[in-house]
Amino acid sequence: MFVFGHIGLTILAFYLTEQWYPKLQGKVNYRFVAIAALLPDLIDKPLGRFLLADSLASGRIFAHTLLFWVLVGLIIVLIWQKWRADFLLILPVAAVLHLLEDSMWQTPEVLFWPLLGWSFPADEIAGGFPDYLMHVFSNCYEPAMSVVFVSEVLGIVVCMVGAMRWYSRVR
């Protein structure tokens, strides 16, 4: 899954949750949800594909593990207890949704790191960040009924509907 899939599906999950739980209505900052939905990739892609490309060669490393987000969640709970910064609670939830959207259960050595070993498996795409981007743009946006393509289209639709609703409110 890519940018619009992560943003759109995560926003949709928060929106539906907000509709089902009236106490949450009006309390979700969707701009923060959008950023938090991309956070595992914003951390791991530059780190594993650029800075540590020679040793790790993967865009799914530390921020794609449950351990990372459990630790982040604990830190956020401590911060929340002191300052009641409700918007921070969105962060670990959106990040775990990202892991679900990435089907991380199919790569248990990453998801449950370090319980299944200390190393991360290398991505199937060899090379550094430019090679990775070229692969993404050349192979992953083909209009076929793939999970990636469908999730991207759905994500774009959710983002467009959200933008139109926001625009109609501020006018």
Report how far the terminal alpha carbons are from each other.
33 Å
- Annotation, overall tally of beta strands: 0
The structural class is mainly alpha
Tally of individual domains = 1
The ordered string of helix (H) and strand (E) elements is: HHHHHHH
Uncertain segments are none
Q: Give the strand content.
A: under 5%
How can the largest sheet be summarized?
Answer: none
Number of helices: 7
Mean pLDDT value: 87
General description of the model:
By secondary structure, this protein is mainly alpha-helical. The chain has one domain (about 5-170). The chain has helices spanning about 5-20, 30-50, 65-85, 90-100, 110, 130-140, 145-170. α1 (about 5-20) packs antiparallel against α2. The longest helix has 24 residues, at about 145-170.
Summarize the structure.
Pfam families: YdjM (PF04307). The protein has 171 residues and is mainly α.
Topology:
Layout: H1 3-20, H2 30-51, H3 66-83, H4 90-101, H5 108-111, H6 129-139, H7 147-170
Helix pairs in contact: 1-2, 1-4, 1-7, 2-4, 3-4
Transmembrane segments: 61-80, 87-105, 144-167
Organism: Methanohalophilus mahii (strain ATCC 35705 / DSM 5219 / SLP)
GO molecular function: hydrolase activity
